[in-house]
């Protein structure tokens, strides 16, 4: 009987606790605002060119509970925020730091300065507020009070110039001047802005037809950034080997053939410079399948297809001498062989590019590696 009585009290206690929990359900409040503190040294000059970080602090908006809150900074040249700009990034602490460079970049946009001469050279007031949101919620942002930094000295800050991450070849032998069918070049591992591809630059119909004419672009578009003969330079050896010339702005190949085409991008101030090189079409197998030899050995170089076969032809490796992992590559001056290696997976040519180690494929003695660079296909048999 005592056990039954005790169990009944236990059930009543559980029901009471459940009722209390229902009474204590969290109700999210939407606050009107919250406080952004005036920085301690706000009366001084904020020299953005020489400052690393700018500190801000606030309190958390009163949502009725302690919420995971994200804070982002907005800037304006006027206290009413008639025009403002968001500074990139967000913060999850009530005390946070904003890179001075990000503020400087935002100020260039606020001043609508397109050249350095348009940008003010004297310190001026800058108004700041913070927008707060609950992380991963659909609640509207809550805005802090507006504070004034009376003397902010900016500068004509510009976004860092990024080197191209893609490059394409188009021409009468590369997509027939259709960007949808243009050759996508392969980025070189460890060399930003550098690209390669094994490209047919023979005549348009095998040993007949017109000589190859090509252009390049880092976007698949006729957008004014096409790179023809007048927009690139050529290495001395490439001039001798391929004899490129100007044909109505296109790059015409005087000596038809297969070439490893290389585009190297560099910066001159904020402008791109492009060098194009045409190298001999030499590709190699190496590693376990040739007895753990890792040099680029002439006896293990792919056979280059005859130009009479046109662009749709296979490069064929020598027969493997051993069982083991297959490795293959082309070689660029100044690069390790594995920076430009490639393999075949499920019938497709797959270059390493900027990625990590490729999965290993096993080969057997007597097999060969076939690569069709035009179709981007391959096989091992």
Gist of the model:
By secondary structure, this protein is mainly beta.
Layout of helices and strands:
Layout: H1 2-23, E1 46-47, E2 53-57, E3 69-76, E4 85-86, E5 95-99, H2 100-110, E6 124-134, E7 142-143, E8 147-153, E9 168-171, E10 183-184, E11 186-187, E12 194-201, E13 213-217, E14 233-234, H3 236-242, E15 244-247, E16 250-253, E17 257-268, E18 271-279, E19 283-286, E20 315-316, E21 324-325, E22 327-330, E23 341-345, E24 348-351, E25 362-363, E26 369-372, E27 377-380
Parallel strand pairs: 1-8, 14-18
Antiparallel strand pairs: 2-5, 3-4, 3-6, 6-7, 6-8, 9-10, 9-13, 11-12, 12-17, 13-16, 15-16, 17-18, 19-22, 20-26, 21-25, 22-23, 23-24, 26-27
Structure description:
The protein has helices at residues 2-23, 100-110, 236-242; strands at residues 46-47, 53-57, 69-76, 85-86, 95-99, 124-134, 142-143, 147-153, 168-171, 183-184, 186-187, 194-201, 213-217, 233-234, 244-247, 250-253, 257-268, 271-279, 283-286, 315-316, 324-325, 327-330, 341-345, 348-351, 362-363, 369-372, 377-380. It has 381 residues and is mainly beta. The N and C termini lie far apart (84 Å). Strands 1, 3, 4, 6, 7 and 8 form a six-stranded mixed beta sheet that branches. The protein has a five-stranded antiparallel beta sheet with strand order 10-9-13-16-15. The chain has a five-stranded mixed beta sheet with strand order 11-12-17-18-14. Mean pLDDT is 91; it is low at 1-23. Helix content is 10%, strand content 33%.
């Amino acid at each position: 009987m005592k056990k039954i009585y005790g169990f009944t009290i236990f059930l009543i206690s559980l029901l009471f606790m459940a009722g209390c929990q229902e009474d204590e359900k969290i109700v999210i409040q939407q606050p009107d605002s919250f406080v952004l503190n005036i920085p301690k040294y706000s009366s001084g000059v904020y020299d953005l060119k020489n400052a690393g970080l700018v500190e801000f602090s606030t309190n958390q908006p009163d949502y009725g509970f302690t919420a995971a809150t994200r804070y982002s900074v907005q800037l304006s040249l006027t206290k009413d925020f008639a025009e403002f700009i968001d500074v990139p990034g967000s913060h999850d602490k009530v005390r946070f730091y904003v890179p001075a460079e990000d503020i400087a970049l935002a100020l260039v946009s606020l001043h609508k300065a397109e050249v350095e001469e348009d940008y003010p050279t004297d310190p001026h007031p800058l108004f700041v507020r913070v927008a707060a949101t609950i992380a991963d919620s659909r609640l509207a942002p809550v805005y802090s009070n507006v504070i004034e930094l009376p003397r902010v000295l900016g500068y004509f800050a510009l976004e860092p110039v990024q080197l191209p991450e893609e490059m394409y070849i188009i021409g009468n032998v590369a997509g027939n001047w259709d960007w949808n069918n243009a050759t996508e070049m392969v980025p070189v591992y460890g060399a930003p802005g550098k690209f390669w591809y094994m490209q047919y630059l023979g005549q348009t119909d095998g040993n007949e037809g017109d000589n190859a004419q090509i252009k390049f672009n880092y976007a698949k578009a006729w957008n004014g950034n096409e790179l023809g003969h007048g927009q690139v330079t050529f290495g001395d050896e490439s001039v001798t080997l391929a004899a490129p010339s100007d044909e109505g702005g296109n790059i015409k190949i005087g000596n038809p053939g297969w070439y490893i085409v290389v585009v190297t991008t560099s910066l001159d101030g904020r402008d791109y410079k492009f060098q194009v090189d045409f190298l001999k079409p030499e590709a190699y197998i190496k590693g376990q399948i040739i007895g753990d030899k890792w040099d680029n050995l002439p006896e293990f170089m792919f056979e280059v297809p005859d130009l009479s076969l046109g662009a749709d032809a296979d490069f064929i490796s020598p027969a493997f001498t051993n069982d083991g992992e297959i490795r293959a590559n082309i070689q660029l001056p100044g690069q390790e062989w594995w920076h430009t290696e490639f393999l075949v997976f499920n019938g497709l040519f797959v270059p390493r590019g900027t990625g990590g180690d490729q999965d290993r494929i096993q080969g057997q003695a007597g097999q060969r590696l076939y690569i069709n660079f035009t179709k981007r296909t391959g096989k091992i048999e």
